[in-house]
Amino acid sequence: MCASLGESENTIRILSASGSPLGSRRSFLGALLGVGSVCVGALLSVPLIRFALFPLLRRTTERKSSPLGTLNEFSTLTEPVMRTIKIEQVDGWRKAISERAVYVTKDTKGNLRVLTSVCPHLGCTVPWNKEMNQFICPCHRAVFAPDGTRISGPSQRPMDTLETSVQDGQLQVRFQYFRQLVGDKEVIG
User: Fold this and answer.
1) Is residue 182 part of a domain?
2) What pLDDT does residue 14 have?
3) What is the pLDDT of residue 69?
4) CB within 10 Å: which end of the chain, N or C, has fewer?
5) b/e burial code for range 15-50 (CB count within 10 A of at least 16 → b)
6) Is the pTM of this model over 0.70?
7) 160 and 139, same structural domain?
8) How far, in Å, CA of 139 to CA of 145, rounded?
9) Strand 143-144 vs strand 81-91: parallel, antiparallel, or unpaired?
10) CB of 127 closer than 8 Å to CB of 140
11) What local confidence, expressed as pLDDT, does residue 60 receive?
12) What is the count of structural domains for the chain?
């Protein structure tokens, strides 16, 4: 009887050390806790990852057309007319609305064209000088003709023209920024 009692104690020790029901329950709960922690961590990291990647995935600075006026307003144009347009720029989470001056004028063939008021030399705002019938940059004295062609000064190219379209009798313009200090017109934004 002693021998059988000793064998049963050995059997009990082996069962508890090798995976008794109590041991497997603890390991199951530990695994369940680990899987649950990973799931909660993944759910909490989704908004953080989206927050970090949003500016990279979103298209910035959508180019929209701005209305300048009806074609009838510009049919009897004899000199450049300044108009102010609103530009909406989206950069990541920031949305900025700025105003820019543009000039509506006619080219040598009589076609309407829209010029940006930004000097192609260093980016100064170029006003129309009515007395001299020219655009004259106040920063470095670049001079441009009424149609935007370069007359003199340090600018390497004429005033930049903007894309235009006509929708329902309205002249629309799409504002763009161009690289300065270069001879060729290069869009930067």
Assistant:
1) no
2) 45
3) 83
4) N
5) eeeeeeeeeeeeeeeeeeeeeeeeeeeeeeeeeeee
6) no
7) yes
8) 17
9) unpaired
10) no
11) 56
12) 2
* Same-domain pairing of 39 and 76: no
> 160 near 120, Cβ under 8 Å?
yes
Same domain assignment for residues 10 and 91: no
Amino acid (one-letter) located at 146: P
Low-confidence ranges of the chain (pLDDT < 50): 1-2, 5-6, 8, 10-16
| H/E stretch holding 69 | strand 65-70
Closest CA to 115 of 77, 81, 89: 81
Structure tokens at 189: 């934004």
**CA 153 to the chain's CA centroid:** 34
In contact, 115 and 103? CB cutoff 8 Å: yes
Report if residue 35 sits inside a domain: yes
Phi, psi of 90 (to 5 degrees): -115, 120
Question: What pLDDT is attached to residue 21?
Answer: 60
CATH number for position 105: 2.102.10.10
Which residue in this structure is represented by tokens 């020219």?
A: 134
Give the torsion through C-alpha atoms of 114, 116, 121, 122, to 10 deg.
180
